[in-house]
Amino acid sequence: MQNIGIQAIITLAAYFIFTGVAFWALQAVRFDHLLRPGHVPQAQALFIILAAVLGYLCTSFFLNFIDNTRNLIFLLR
């Protein structure tokens, strides 16, 4: 049971870290050229959603990569 709790903490931490990194990285993109003027709340919501989506995808890739790497041991047995 403790192993599941540790895995949950690592997963949540990875979600927050990768979402923060995605938010930071998206600030380099100029979205003002893509969006209509006067739609600031929608642009901010889109920015947050994009950061969450990128953070989720990066976290899923990272955690799946680690799990698959750990499972390679069973191939060698």
TrEMBL record:
The chain crosses the membrane at residues 6-26, 46-66. Keywords: Membrane, Transmembrane, Transmembrane helix. It comes from the Bacteria. InterPro entries: DUF1146 (IPR009526). It holds the Pfam family DUF1146. This is DUF1146 family protein.
